[in-house]
Design goal:
It is a single chain. The chain has 140 residues and is an alpha+beta fold. The protein has one domain. The protein has helices at 4-7, 44-52, 72-83, 111-122, and strands spanning 93-98, 101-108, 129-137. Strands 1-2-3 form a 3-stranded mixed sheet, covered by helices on one side.
């Protein structure tokens, strides 16, 4: 049996950075980009850290510690997936960030596993959409 410490950050290795898309930060972003995402709730602690650094960082570019990171949403999603027992051991999916959308590619053993991944992803501040059309669900 694997130790929890051994599996921690497993999802960080499943991010495909060379296929992630992002918009560079600029002054032309509108306030609508600062909406929290699918759950309509903010990660207040993380946003406070981000605001200390100066201009607000858009949620899709907000890193794990509130810093500017063009892959921040993907990294925060990976962290959230690692923290959930029902998703931490899934290693057959990769994730990509396309703006404020998280795209999954790969295979899962059953629909419940995919549902858990999607539900966790939707809880991350800044996620506006989750794409799973490139995920195969093994038939039971």
């Amino acid at each position: 049996m694997q130790n929890k410490v051994d599996t921690l950050m497993n999802w960080q290795h499943n991010i495909v950075f060379n296929d992630c898309e992002y918009e560079p930060a600029n002054e032309n972003r509108t306030y609508s980009r600062m909406k929290p995402g699918l759950t309509d709730t903010y990660d207040r602690e993380l946003r406070e850290k981000a605001s200390i650094r100066g201009n607000p960082v858009p949620p899709d570019c907000m890193g794990v510690e509130g810093e500017y990171d063009p892959f921040g949403l993907a990294k925060r999603v990976a962290k959230a997936l690692d923290e959930q027992p029902q998703t931490a051991d899934i290693n057959t999916l990769t994730l990509r960030q396309k703006g404020n959308t998280i795209v999954y590619v790969g295979q899962v053993s059953n629909q419940q596993a995919l549902d858990a991944v999607v539900a966790t992803t939707q809880q991350v501040d800044g996620t506006h959409a989750v794409a799973t059309d490139q995920v195969n669900v093994a038939s039971s």
